[in-house]
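Hey, does this match?
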Amino acid sequence: MASKSFRQITQDINQALAGFRKDAEGTMAGFGAMAKAAMAPGVLSELQKELIALAIGVAARCDGCIGFHVKALVRLGVTHEQLTETLAVAVYMGGGPSLMYAAEALRAYEEFQG
């Protein structure tokens, strides 16, 4: 049985940040603007940028990052092959700990596909 639900993780984070969004409105607006600019399609597609973000999230061992970026990747139509190639690079760069989080990213992919 899976130890965590990435749907639940992303919901919990959104809920926990609700007050912070109000209390730190300027910071959150700035972060949102930065995210929008960084993820806008350019030379790299939005899908490619989300794959990069996922790889960093795996290497940083961030459950929330994995949840939010896999959810976006599923919305963008990522293939299993694109996902696994990205995770292979993340494991190469991050070693054994990234391998454990690559497995979590694959679980998140299956969860958001369903």
